[in-house]
Amino acid sequence: MNAPLVATLGLARHYRTGRGVLRALDGVDLSIDRGETLGLVGESGSGKSTLGRTLVGLQAPTHGSVLFDGADTAGLRGDALRALRRRRQLVFQDPSGALNPRMTLGATLREHLRVQGWTRAAVRERVPDVLEQAGLPAAFAGRYPHEISGGQRQRAVIARAISTDPDFIVADEPVSALDVSTRAQIINLLRGLQRARGLTMLFISHDLSVVAHTCRHVAVMYLGRIVEVAPREVLFATPRHPYTAALLSAVPVPDPVRERQRGRILLVGETPDPSSPPSGCRFHPRCPLASGICAQVDPPMRSLAPGHTAACHHSDKVGSVEAVAQAARGLTALG
Amino acid sequence: MSALLDVCDLSVAFGDTRAVDGVSFSLAPGETLGLVGESGCGKSTTALALMRLLRGARLGGSAMFGGRDLLALDEAAMRRVRGAEVAMIFQDPGTALHPLIRVGDQVAEVVRAHLGLSGGDSRARALDLFRKVGIAAPEQRLRAYPHELSGGMCQRVMIAAAIACSPRLLLADEPTTALDVTVQAQILELLRAVSREAGMAVVLITHDLGVVAGMTDRVAVMYAGRIVESAATDTLFARPAHPYTRGLLGSVPALDSGWEEELATIPGSVRTAADVRGCPFAPRCPLASEVCREAPPLIEGAAGHLVACWKAA
Fold it and tell me: Which chain A residue is nearest to residue B245, measuring alpha carbons?
């Protein structure tokens, strides 16, 4: 069997804040096979960006480890670390903030490659090449970020990420800052690159429909934990965690007829403060299916089918958005 | 039924730049109209112009509301309309609220200013409103400052302030764009409930076609400062006629189908300034030809379905 390219074991990242310890990641086990694109969805504060930054080494884990190509990345120094940086790259959400406004796109790309030890001659050849792969004219090397549109800036950020020929890319909300019509162009570009180069990718987004179009597998995060992982067809048809079901039901669908008919799960309240997560299952205060055990025992990730895992005491009662919607309606009727 | 709001040939210009160019639409009492478009298309500017909140802008056209032209009222008269008869909520509730004033006082102030209630009565009214918009533990929340509340909670406070004087029209400018999807669902449900209950008309400004589909009776699509298509919501989604509308709908990824297909795209990127001759969409349009050098008028094809395109079937 194919060994995963990227894996984490009990990964945790804590921050000290004025109110105590904020557990942005609190025990994440994850693996991404070579050539696979894993979608990571969750709401603000769920820890998805922290996970992405930890996977590319921009942040060190507090506990646990990140394995790349089977080797623990924690002890790497010097040349070995530089070589690893070449192999894992990040695409940021806000392309304007990710590019130096005082450098031309060409200068940005040249610097990125020179740091990686490329010779001047090789860099000169590479720059127009990667711009074109990202769908920009080679002449854009002379442009400054403010001279081009937001979609073009995101293409430049993608050009930089693929310039070192990486194996693994973390794309952190790569289309959230873009307009609808530009968003589709960038999604198509990322899909094309992923297929053409056999890239392994973690695609972070709060938008489930964007993830559906980019990733074959999807992981759902809530409050520093992964609560469900499944192939997208399975996750969307038969979610087994009530939070996944609620997320799916909350996505507005651009079809007025279906919008009127579909069941909606209205969750109570908002995501709790990650510096004092609820006892037991972290989702229990908002969960329409919660029972006594949920407040006491933290549910472990359980395998439900090949490739499908979920952390819920009641995953056998979930099964569909409609089932949870019904439970939620019962709750409002009682309350 | 006569219109609640009748906007006719609205234009907004900043110096030489026209941000909104000849926008006309009307709104029946209790109706929800979606104003859709991408950044820079003039949808927010349209709302701000109606509220007369644009400084240094030249306004043209008219906006008849209850027998008065909102664009021609003097500032004193506008002050009595704003917040009382026409209210507005914004995308980022965190910055729309005053950071140093307790949220309860900010809601009470609206009631005091417009309805002339005393301090005690206005505070009691604020408490009622907090309950109505589903704020948990309302007594304590009245005394909170905006930074102590989450984004969703701040937006509930904004809605409480907006509906405080039972306005007949609410302008909602991307009210859920800054919120998480499960909180967005809560806020949209709240907006639906308060507008239905009070028979309040809503202009919902958004870039999200999913939100429009679930919330509105009619939709107007804007591009480069103009309305390019408007129709009943069901009609617009079932039979979009303008190439831009079709492009927009095609480029939205669906949640549950067509995953392996390439998304349709609109080539190029959005134009912002409306100072173009001819059809503003022509440079990106797959159907563009010679005739598109002249700007197409917004005309009614089928009943209630208006399109500004020479090529629309």
Answer: A181
